[in-house]
Amino acid sequence: MMRRIKSTMWMAITLVFAVSCHNKENNNESCCSSEKVEVTDMQMDKLGITNREYLSAASKRALQWPELGNDWYIEFEVFDLKGDFAYEEGVVRRDPSALIKENGKYYVWYTRSTGKTDGFAGDIEKDKVFPWDRCDIWYATSEDGVTWKEEGPAVLRGEKGEYDDRSVFTVEIMKWDGKYYLCYQTVKSPYNVRVKNQVGLAWADSPDGPWTKSKDPILSPADNGIWEGEVQNRFKVKKKGDFDSHKVHDPCIIPYKGKFYLYYKGEQMGEEVTFGGRQIRHGVAIADNPKGPYVKSPYNPISNSGHEICVWPYNGGIASLITTDGPERNTIQWSPDGVNFEIQSSIKGAPHAIGLNRAADNEKDPTEVLRWGLTHEYRTYDWQYIRGFRSRKVKNHTAIGEEGE
Ligand code: AAL
To answer: Which domains does the chain have, with CATH numbers?
Structure first.
C-alpha cells in the first residue's frame, strides 16, 4: 500500500514538475539547474547516473521515484470472435458490457443497430445521426468467451415521447442481491447535436429478462450551461457549465462500501480540444439503493482524462482504466475511496470500450479482470463489431538463447 501511495505521489510530482519547468522556460528563466540534489552511490548505480554534479531534469525526476513494481503494467492484444460476433456487414454491435457468468455461460449486453450512419446534415427525423443512434440493447451468451450466440433484444427504445424514445445504448450490467441491473445511455428525439443524453436503468430477476425499465432517467446532465444562439452547434456557448453539462455517458454501477457508485463519463457544453484530444472527464454519483436516487459527488470530476468507463473493485478501493483522452490517458488508476484516484501505471494503449470479466477473481491480481474480455472495433465508421482482447504482464525481456541466472 505504501509503495502504491509513493508511486502515485511520484507520478503527480512528475507532472507538476514538468508543467512548472515548461512555464518557466516560456518565461525565459533558466529552469531546474541551480538546486543542489543529494545522490547516494546506490542511487547513482541503480539509475546509471554518470556524474552527480550534472543532473539532468530527467535524472532529478528519477531520483524521486519510489521502488516501482510491475504489478499494474500490462499489454493488450485483440482478436476476432466466432459465431454471431464474427464481423457482419450491415449490423452495428458495439460498446459491450462487462461479462458475467450465469447458468454455466458468459453473458454480455451491447448496443445493436442496423443501417448506415447519415450524420446530421439531412433530415434528423428520418436519418441515423451516429452509429449508436436508433439502437436497442441486445444480449448474447457464450460457453467459452470466444463463440457467441446472439440471444435477442433485452431493452428496447421507449414509446414516442418517452425519455428514451430515440436510442438506448452503451450498457453495463450489475448483479446484486439475486437481481440484475442494466444501466445505459438514453436519447430522446429529436437527436440534434445539442440534445442532452441521460442514463436509464432496467432490472430483472434473470439475466434473460424480462426487463423492467425505470420510468425516469436515473442520471441527467448538469443544468448550468448556456448555449449561444439557436444554431445546432455544440461548441457555441455563453457558459459551459459543469464537466457533464451536455451528456452523461458510459454508466457503470459498482456496489461499494454498502452503497452504489455510478461511474460515468461527462461531456461538457462547448467542449474543447485539449492535450491533443477531447475534453472528457469522469464523475461518480452515489445511491443507497441500486435504483437510486443517485446523487452526484461534490468532488466531481474525479478524472480529467479517459473515455469509456472501465472500473473494478480491488484491495478495498476502486481501480479505473483511463484511455483515449486527456493528459492522463493510457494509465491505470486506483482510489482507496472510489473518488480520489491516483496513477498506478502507464500502458501502451488499451482496446476501446472494454467489457471486462466480472466473473474473474478481482482480488487475485490488480488487473485480473482485464486478463481477457470484450471490446469493439471500427471496421468502418458505419460498421463496428465486437472483438475479444487479452492482456499480459511484461515479465522478462530476454534475447533468444540468452543464458538464465
Ligand atoms: C462511446 C461512448 C458512448 C458515446 C458513443 C457511444 O465511445 O463513449 O457510447 O455516446 O461512443
So the answer is: 2-63 (no CATH), 74-393 (2.115.10.20)
